[in-house]
């Protein structure tokens, strides 16, 4: 009888252990592999993803076409831009602190910003500001885009949480589907997330705004070099990065946006300083080309390299492990294979080499010289006309004086 009791207890606790083990496995597994996007009721419940919105907009920055995970998995082009197993996008409204690793995103200003920033026409170019202008300290180096919590991706896709919710605040309405903007025509196809955020800032929709001035001012000198885009008008860049990405890891940073910014700047400084891999193999190649395969190799597969259509470097996404105790970024790690396959636009564009462009100083010089020449010619012309005018006046004076003399002199 005693033996049967022991056997019963062993079987009971074994079953309990298996259940908890399976629960833990399922919870982790729902963040990995192709099954992540094709959620069933069990995995949705375990991961608390019920009725969450798939951010299919991803790179397009436009309103998502497919709304839920199940609809996404059952749909096919042209209803969506990408097949389910090549998805690149975010899951809106996910619980905060639910992700596997970080991406530290850096960008190369010469590929994204004009020689001279115009506050009116370039307002929605979040990367750019007066501090990305030619000859500014942050204009020709890798600078901060953001720090992004990211799901582990064993499948051939990349996914991330965005506009997350926590006990402190729900940021999901800051996504374009939140419909907080009072402007008309917000359903048009050209109404992007960027325009939505500009609307929220212009209309002072406080539930989606952070106190940018208070956060940025203490770090202004470092921002000029390490994150010049953050000094954009209306604080649009820091507002976007916190509401979309920072909200999903806020507890790791003590729910403090200034702490989040300081960590991002520290990481950017660390990975771009002299002696770092990016300094040795990107900064020192500025103005030249470098083999794509070679660059991937020397960066030890820790980075996803993104190019424009001319195979010029646009962004570098550096994968960083997450400390299991603090939840903070820990160290560089090899990027998951799925993320590399989906997001490496240089490889997709079949770039053999990556160009590291510098500012087109010759164009700037030519433009400046032309302007100087035009101004000089205009000045010469003005002076010439003034001399002609003076000569005409003098001639009239001489003629008048001569006539007077002839009148008064005797014959």
TrEMBL record:
<feature type="transmembrane region" description="Helical">
    <location>
        <begin position="6"/>
        <end position="25"/>
    </location>
</feature>
<dbReference type="Pfam" id="PF00445">
    <property type="entry name" value="Ribonuclease_T2"/>
</dbReference>
<dbReference type="InterPro" id="IPR018188">
    <property type="entry name" value="RNase_T2_His_AS_1"/>
</dbReference>
<keyword id="KW-0472">Membrane</keyword>
<comment type="similarity">
    <text>Belongs to the RNase T2 family.</text>
</comment>
<protein>
    <submittedName>
        <fullName>Uncharacterized protein</fullName>
    </submittedName>
</protein>
<keyword id="KW-0812">Transmembrane</keyword>
<keyword id="KW-1133">Transmembrane helix</keyword>
<dbReference type="InterPro" id="IPR033130">
    <property type="entry name" value="RNase_T2_His_AS_2"/>
</dbReference>
<dbReference type="GO" id="GO:0006401">
    <property type="term" value="P:RNA catabolic process"/>
</dbReference>
<dbReference type="GO" id="GO:0033897">
    <property type="term" value="F:ribonuclease T2 activity"/>
</dbReference>
<dbReference type="InterPro" id="IPR036430">
    <property type="entry name" value="RNase_T2-like_sf"/>
</dbReference>
<dbReference type="InterPro" id="IPR001568">
    <property type="entry name" value="RNase_T2-like"/>
</dbReference>
<dbReference type="GO" id="GO:0003723">
    <property type="term" value="F:RNA binding"/>
</dbReference>
<feature type="transmembrane region" description="Helical">
    <location>
        <begin position="384"/>
        <end position="409"/>
    </location>
</feature>
């Amino acid at each position: 009888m005693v033996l049967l009791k022991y056997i019963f207890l062993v079987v009971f606790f074994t079953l309990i252990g298996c259940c908890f083990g399976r629960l833990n496995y399922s919870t982790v597994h729902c963040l990995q592999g192709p099954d992540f996007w094709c959620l069933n009721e069990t995995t949705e419940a375990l991961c608390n993803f019920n009725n969450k919105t798939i951010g299919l907009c991803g790179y397009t920055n436009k309103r998502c076409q497919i709304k839920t995970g199940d609809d996404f998995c059952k749909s096919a082009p042209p209803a969506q831009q990408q097949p389910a197993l090549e998805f690149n996008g975010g899951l809106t409204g996910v619980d905060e602190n639910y992700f596997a690793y970080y991406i530290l995103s850096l960008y190369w200003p010469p590929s994204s910003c004009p020689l001279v920033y115009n506050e009116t026409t370039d307002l929605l170019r979040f990367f750019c500001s007066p501090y990305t202008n030619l000859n500014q300290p942050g204009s020709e180096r890798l600078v901060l885009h953001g720090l992004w919590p990211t799901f582990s991706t064993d499948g051939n896709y990349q996914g991330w949480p965005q506009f997350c919710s926590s006990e402190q605040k729900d940021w999901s309405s800051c996504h374009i589907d939140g419909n907080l903007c009072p402007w008309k025509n917000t359903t048009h196809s050209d109404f992007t997330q960027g325009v939505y955020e500009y609307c929220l800032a212009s209309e002072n929709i406080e539930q989606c705004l952070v106190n940018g001035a208070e956060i940025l001012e203490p770090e202004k000198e470092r921002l000029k070099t390490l994150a010049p885009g953050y000094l954009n008008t209306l604080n649009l860049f820091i507002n976007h990065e916190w509401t979309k990405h920072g909200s999903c890891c806020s507890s790791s940073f003590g729910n403090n946006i200034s702490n989040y910014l300081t960590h991002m700047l520290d990481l950017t400084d660390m990975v771009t300083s002299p002696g770092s891999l990016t300094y040795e193999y990107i900064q020192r190649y500025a103005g030249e080309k470098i083999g794509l395969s070679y660059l991937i190799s020397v960066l030890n597969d820790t980075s996803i390299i993104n190019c424009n259509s001319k195979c010029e470097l646009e962004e570098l996404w550096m994968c960083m492990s997450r400390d299991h105790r603090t939840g903070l970024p820990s160290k560089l790690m090899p990027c998951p294979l799925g993320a590399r396959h989906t997001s490496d636009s240089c490889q997709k564009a079949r770039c053999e080499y990556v160009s590291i462009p510098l500012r087109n100083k010759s164009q700037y010089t030519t433009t400046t010289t032309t302007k100087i020449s035009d101004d000089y010619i205009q000045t010469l012309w003005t002076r010439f006309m003034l001399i002609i005018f003076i000569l005409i006046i003098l001639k009239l004076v001489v003629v008048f004086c001569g006539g007077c003399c002839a009148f008064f002199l005797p014959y």
